[in-house]
Amino acid sequence: MIYITQLIYIIDGQEDIFNQFENIAIPTILKYNGRLTLRIRPDENSIIEKSIERPYEIHLVEFDTQQDFDNFKKDEERKKFLHLKEQSIKSSILIQGIKLYNEKKNSRSALANNYTRNMKVKYNEQEKTIEINDALQTSYLILGILMLINIFNAGLNLYKMDDGQLEMIGYIWILVVALSLGVLAYGLLKKTADNKIPLNQIKRLKEKQVLGRKRFSLELKNGKLRDLTKLNSQSEINELKRIFTDIGIETN
């Protein structure tokens, strides 16, 4: 989301011409995923302090993307009436920016940069995703390799045994194979280590106790869990919960 603030100064006596142009330009904003969120015409009584000339009008407009704003400026229908703008507007100041913070409880833009100390969690407002920067993918890869080594090693030892003479060690190797396959299957079917998760795929932030410590994971709508690691203090836990509460994701 991008935000445009425009201070408009018009030529004396050209108010009607300016309004004609605005009656064409403002509806065009909607064609390009834009919204006119504020349009004011200040007078001297409404100004507390100033160091510039009072503008005739102030507009606040938002567009979903930069491309939407660029497309609005290129609109062919709007271009046909630019002579009205040139005839009525003396000058204008255009300020472009992004929303840094919004105190509204469910505002997603408040999450543009929220981090725990050791695990980064960021809400990407433009892509509507949760981005997690940790080493979980590497951990899962190492675990998977270890399980494959276990299976290979157990299979090799079982192959070397004489037929019908499994004995105790043979059953142990079979158990190792079964456990390793179980770990691999559980990881593939029930876990994910994705570092970018679309918001519409997240069901809730799940909390549970493991050996007396709080563990958190994202429960996805497809039934998988995305573990959130490296939460070392209560302040980090509180910050994590606040992040997901602010974007409207259920926490428990």
Structure description:
The protein has 7 helices and 11 strands. It is an alpha+beta fold. It folds into 3 domains: 2-97, Alpha-Beta Plaits (2-Layer Sandwich); 109-134 and 195-251, no CATH class; 137-190. It has a 4-stranded antiparallel sheet. It has a 4-stranded mixed sheet with strand order 10-9-8-11, covered by helices on one side. Helix 5 packs antiparallel against helix 6 (167-190). The longest helix is centred in the middle third of the chain and has 25 residues, at 136-160. The chain is elongated and about 105 Å long. Residues 103-119 have low confidence and may be disordered.
Task: Summarize the helices and strands and which ones pair or pack.
Layout: E1 2-10, H1 15-29, E2 34-40, E3 57-63, H2 66-73, H3 76-79, H4 82-88, E4 89-97, E5 120-124, E6 129-133, H5 136-160, H6 167-190, E7 196-198, E8 202-210, E9 213-220, E10 225-228, H7 234-246, E11 250-251
Parallel strand pairs: 8-11
Antiparallel strand pairs: 1-3, 1-4, 2-3, 5-6, 6-7, 8-9, 9-10
Helix pairs in contact: 1-4, 5-6
The H/E string reads: EHEEHHHEEEHHEEEEHE
End-to-end Cα distance: 30 Å
Q: What profile does the largest beta sheet have?
A: 4 strands, antiparallel
Number of domains: 3
CATH topology of the largest domain: Alpha-Beta Plaits
CATH architecture of the largest domain: 2-Layer Sandwich
Structural class, by secondary structure, is alpha+beta
**Shape category:** elongated
| Poorly predicted segments | 103-119
**Reading side by side through the largest sheet, how are the strands ordered?**
2-3-1-4
What Rg is obtained from the alpha carbons, in whole angstroms? Answer: 30 Å
Count of distinct strands: 11
Q: CATH class of the largest domain, please?
A: Alpha Beta
Number of helices: 7
Strand composition percent:
25-35%
Mean of pLDDT: 85
- What is the share of helical residues? 25-40%
